[in-house]
Amino acid sequence: MYKLKKEREDMFRIPSFHQEEVELSQAWQTMSGHGRGDCLEGMKSMDRIWAEHCATPDADDDDFFSNWCYEVNAYNKVYADMSKLFA
User: Fold this and answer.
1) What residues contact residue 78 under an 8 Å CB cut-off, 6+ apart?
2) Which residues of 11-48 are buried (b: 16+ CB within 10 A; e: fewer)?
3) pTM for the complete prediction?
């Protein structure tokens, strides 16, 4: 069991055990599904879930990443690929 820095700036700092390679199309679909058809809303939802997790005093980051593995990897993929458009 370990703790990561609670505040993240841009992308999730996913422990290597929970990191997965994902194609942009699959990541977009995952985030859109999480946001009920809206990818940006899905990403905002993950931000809210992370904030909720951080507010829980006995929260375990390993449990978070285990429970949200697909979503955080999808979030990072969408963020990384889409940020290139605005650089």
Assistant:
1) 24, 27, 28, 31, 39, 43
2) ebebeeebeeebeeeebbebbbebbeeebeebbebbee
3) 0.86
What sign does the CA torsion over 29, 71, 75, 43 have? positive
Q: What tokens were used for 39?
A: 């990818």
- Report pLDDT for 1: 38
Place of tokens 């609670």: 6
Q: Rounded to whole angstroms, how far apart are CA atoms 61 and 64? A: 5
Domain ranges, ordered by start, for the chain: 20-86
Tens of each residue's pLDDT in the chain, 87 residues: 344 444 456 899 999 999 999 999 999 999 999 999 999 999 999 999 999 999 998 999 999 999 999 999 999 999 999 988 876
Return the ∠ at Cα 30 (arms to 56 and 20), rounded to 5°: 75
